[in-house]
Amino acid sequence: MVTLTAGVDELRPPSCQGLNCSEPQKWQLVYLFAGLGFMAVGSGGIRACNIAFGADQFDTNTEKGRSQLKSFFNWWYFSFTIALIIALTVVIYIQTNISWFIGFLIPTCCLALSIMIFLIGRNTYISLKPQGCVFIDMAKVINAACRKRHVPVVPTANSFYDRASKESENELLVLRHTDRFKFLDKAAVIVDPNSELNAEGVAKDSWRLCNVEQVEKLKCVVGILPVWLAGITCFITMEQMNTFGVLQVIQSNTKVGNFMIPPGWMGLASMISLAIWIFIYECVYVPNASKISKKEARLSLQIRIKIGIFMSILCLAVAALVETRRRDLALKEGVFISPLGIGFFLPQFILAGLTEAFAAVSVMEFLNNQVPETMRSVAGAIFFLSLSIASYLNTLIVNVVEMLSGLHGRKPWLGSHDLNQNKLERFYILIAGLAVLNFIYFHFFASRYIQSYEESKRRKTVLETRLDSGFVDLPEKKP
């Protein structure tokens, strides 16, 4: 549907004549938004479940399965990077210089091919049996905890309804009780065994009595939220380069020699800086630092996220300085396209890539490791939801800034189709201020949840080491 808007003249308004553009008709907007709506629904299903479904195809109980799973992740990121490079080079170049219709047709054909490949292999996939909806379980825990809000929590094993899932084949994967967010523990407190449990010891009403594992799953999600909120502000920074950053380049000198650089290619600088840092970190820093310290030397998630937030502040500060220079040159020459070269915009896009390399990747790692394996698709959904929320918040902030800055007859900072008539650098400084507040919030509050996660991870590593060494005797499974 989106491709047809570029190929069929009747589905879009006439081309702009300079800054004079005709408004689209309502039915044209309805058609366009319908196509974008289908795209959003499809992306929502694919992004959250793609990696999780692929990981289900491997038996992690065997050495071969674990090795294949690592290869799967490597090939997934490799194909993802190749797709981004093609999208940001070939497709954007075709859209900018040849045809928007052909540029949209290429990803349309790729999606059609992916559907065919997926259907061809439908009989070979391992599809795990669904075990209920985790969101319904969360609603049950909240409901039960609210109903029992006046019930005191007795910290004994017998006071909780701890009935492990019958579907779990590995007892080590069953979540056990933790001491955080104790209010939610009330959902699993057995007040009256006679009225709440049947003869087999199973809860009669799952909306009034939940098991410990259900409670712990909700605790995992609640423990994610503070760090998740800090990540949203980082994504707002990255969003600026995808929108206003590209607009800056459009109104600048994009000619390098005899070649005109498409403004959309600037995203390559972010992606390349991200890839270079990951290569340096994984292949240079970690191996050499580990040799020197005689142990695995990785930067903690806490430090990496702080560095990412600092990079976002620096990115916006640099963008504000460059925008001031770009607009001043354009106004001095009295031209729409500023003579400022495209190379001056590279630092802000590189810093945006480093923000993603440090903060975004760390937030994704935290989300996926904080939840049990059965909730990995939920973690993926939460991560991509933060990207969506950041986009909506960015739109809201732009509208609010445009409205408030234009009060009392003043000229608004944003809103004009000509960036030379805007005060974009002030908007960048405002977003940088939000990033500073985000750094303070993360340092004094959200980072505590990172610490508790890393401590539990270290305890888990010690336990796994003892298990591999044979120093821990596990209870035999009941027949």
TrEMBL record:
Pfam families: PTR2
Gene3D superfamilies noted in UniProt: MFS general substrate transporter like domains
Top-level division of the source organism's lineage: Eukaryota
Keywords: Membrane, Transmembrane, Transmembrane helix
Membrane topology type: Multi-pass membrane protein
Protein species of origin: Anisodus acutangulus
Signal peptide annotation: none
Statement: the UniProt record of this protein carries the keyword ATP-binding: no
Protein name in the entry: Protein NRT1/ PTR FAMILY 2.8
GO cellular component terms given for this protein: membrane
Membrane-spanning segments: 29-53, 74-94, 100-121, 218-238, 265-284, 305-322, 342-367, 379-407, 427-450
Family of the protein in this entry: Belongs to the major facilitator superfamily. Phosphate:H(+) symporter (TC 2.A.1.9) family.
Intracellular or extracellular location(s): Membrane
GO molecular function, one term: transmembrane transporter activity
